[in-house]
Amino acid sequence: MPDNFIDADDRPWGRWEEYLNEDGYRVKRIFVAPGERLSLQRHRLRREHWVIVAGTGLFHLDGKETTVATGSAVFIPVGGVHRISNTGSEPLLIIETQLGICDEDDIERLEDDYGRS
After folding, report:
1. Which of 18, 34, 58, 71 lies in disulfide reach of 7, CB 3.0 to 4.6 Å?
2. How many CB atoms lie within 10 A of CB 9?
3. Which CATH class is domain 7-101?
């Protein structure tokens, strides 16, 4: 695994690594462990584009669920209520591009398996 990231954080569901953070956009690599999922959340200041580069999962956006796998891409609009679950036996790997005001505090958690607010 390359270690040329500029920031990283371990989370209860896996890990994210940040590779670019410029005015108006940010690029991360997200690892979701098997059987884990991100919080149900939304962002007020940014939109996101996710490309699934490894694994399989279930993507939720505004009440609709879609199965995703390697090669899938999803777009999350500003305010879109979303989460992803790893439904496979291997890590789910996502390349996330954020567009807009890309502040890590721009996360409103609506539901969280790990008790975070």
Report:
1. 18
2. 10
3. mainly beta
